[in-house]
Design a protein that fits this description.
Number of domains: 2
CATH architecture of the largest domain: 3-Layer(aba) Sandwich
Strand content: 15-25%
Mean pLDDT: 96
CATH superfamily of the largest domain: Glycogen Phosphorylase B
Shape: globular
Structural class: alpha/beta
Helix content: 25-40%
CATH topology of the largest domain: Rossmann fold
Strand order of the largest sheet: 3-2-1-4-5-6
CATH class of the largest domain: Alpha Beta
Largest sheet: 6 strands, parallel
Oligomer: single chain
Order of helices and strands: EHHEHEHHEHEEHEHEHEHEHEHEH
Distance between the termini: 48 Å
Number of strands: 12
């Protein structure tokens, strides 16, 4: 059977945006075995897709900080061994960065990527065997799907993206209300945050409808923010720290998700949940939430904007029946 290596390493949102590519490839070549190279912290995402055979984790971020350690070079040698185990019919790098392109060179097979005018780092194009022009003024999901179609020679899909993943069962140690909304308050930059005061007003409005606000977190500052929001509400729950598989389950069992510009809001949409994405410092045109069912998601705001709570609640009413 043909075997394909997919390279999309970071970030969380980018990895999620690459899931429809796997669905597209499987639809056209159902016998193809697909492996995926991804940063270790995001490895749970491709594992959610049933058409991914093997997930090969890398730790470039961690390796950069410990290049003098023997353990780092042992892990790099192990990566080389994993990538040399198979002769790939095709290798596709949808990341378009020099680091991702270099990873693909460790494997054997016909190597595809974006040309120098399309790649995020033009030098990456010099490492591919075959380069393809992919217009930059498209949504990230569309760009990924187009590159794969060009690489493998099938027509560019015109259907809505199918992320191909489903939420599993909630962890047995976690008990949540029957109706809750996931409040995805954390993001990579402070400029992309939504004010805590507005999260509190949102929680108060949800309380009048008998709906809890569930707050995940990933580091100490996010935990502190979640606790401050919850302290002002009687219907808020601060989750324990969870991995991506468990978080996917939490999102999958939610009534809806409301979140700022973060990977988890894209995960909620990928799981086909009603999703409101709040943008305050980025443009959602190219990287906003894009779902299989466009009627289930709304992107609010943009660079230099701060959507008010009423707008968020109005959007929520449009995508849910609560």
């Amino acid at each position: 059977m043909p075997r394909l290596l997919m390279i999309k390493t970071t970030s969380l949102g980018d990895v999620i945006h690459n899931l429809p590519v796997i669905t597209d490839i499987h639809a056209h070549f159902p016998d193809t075995i697909i492996d995926w190279v991804v940063e270790e912290s995001f490895a749970d995402i491709p594992r959610l897709h049933p058409s991914v055979q093997q997930v090969i984790p890398v730790a470039i971020r961690r390796w950069r900080k410990s290049l003098l350690k023997n353990s780092t070079w042992q892990e790099i040698r192990h990566l080389r061994h994993q990538l040399s185990e198979h002769q790939y019919d095709h290798i596709i790098d949808t990341q378009g960065l020099l680091k991702s392109a270099m990873i693909g060179r460790l494997a054997s097979g016909s190597y595809h990527g974006q040309d120098s005018a399309s790649a995020r780092e033009p030098l990456a194009a010099s490492l591919y065997h075959h380069t393809h022009r992919v217009a930059r003024n498209q949504h990230a999901v569309t760009r990924n799907r187009e590159l794969a179609a060009l690489a493998l020679g099938y027509p560019m899909p015109d259907n809505a993206p199918d992320y191909g993943i489903h939420a599993g069962q909630l962890p047995g140690t976690l008990t949540l209300p029957s109706q809750y909304i996931a409040g995805l308050h954390a993001t990579s930059r402070d400029s992309k945050l939504w004010p805590e005061s507005q999260w509190i007003v949102l929680g108060q409005q949800l309380q009048t409808q008998g709906i809890a606000l569930v707050l995940p977190w990933g580091n100490a500052s996010e935990h502190a923010r979640a606790q401050r929001i919850a302290a002002a509400l009687s219907n808020a729950i601060v989750l324990p720290r969870l991995g991506l598989t468990a978080l996917a389950a939490v999102l999958g069992h939610a009534v809806a998700a409301i979140g700022v510009d973060t990977g988890l809001v894209h995960l909620a949409a990928a799981l086909d949940k009603p999703t409101i994405a709040i943008y305050t410092d980025t443009d959602p045109l190219l990287t906003g939430v894009l779902a299989h069912d466009k009627h289930k998601v709304i992107n609010l705001g943009g660079k230099g904007q701060n959507p008010d709570t009423e707008s968020v609640l109005d959007a929520l009413a449009q995508v849910t029946t609560i």
